[in-house]
Amino acid sequence: MRYEQEFVDGLYARVDALRGDTEGSLTDALAQGDTPMQARLERDILVAERSGLLAALNSVDGSLCFGRIDLADGGSHHIGRIGLRAEDADRTPLLIDWRADVARPFYLATGHTPMGLRRRRHIASEGRRVTALHDEILDLGDETRTGHEDPSGDAVLLAAVNSARTGRMGDIVQTIQADQDRVIRAPHRGVLVVEGGPGTGKTAVALHRAAYLLYEHRDLLAKRAVLIVGPNPAFLGYIGEVLPSLGETGVLLSTVGELFPGVRATAADTPEAAAVKGRAEMADVLAQAVRARQSLPDPVIAIEHDREVLLLDDDLARVARDRTRAVGLPHNAAREHFEGHLLNTLTDMVAERIGTDPYDGSNLLDPSDITQIRDELAENPEVWAAIDRLWPRLTPRRLVAGLLAAPEEFLSAEDAAAIRRPVTRRWTVGDVPLLDEAAELLGEDDRVARSRAERERAEQVAYAQGVLDVSYASRTYEFEGLDDEDAEVLSAHDVIDAERFAERQEEDDHRSAAERAAADRSWAFGHIIVDEAQELSPMAWRLLMRRCPTRSMTLVGDPAQTAEPAGVGSWSKILAPYVEDRWVHTRLGVNYRTPAEIMELAADVVRAADPSFVPPSSVRSTGTAPWVRATADLPAAVAEAVRELTPEEGRLAVIAPRELHRALAAGLDGVTEGAEPDLTRDVVLLDPRQAKGLEFDSVLVVEPGRYGTSDLYVALTRATQRLGVLHTGPLPHGFAAA
Ligand SMILES: Nc1ncnc2c1ncn2[C@@H]1O[C@H](COP(=O)(O)OP(=O)(O)OP(=O)(O)O)[C@@H](O)[C@H]1O
Question: Which atom of ligand 1 is nearest to the CA of 198?
Answer without folding.
Answer: 26
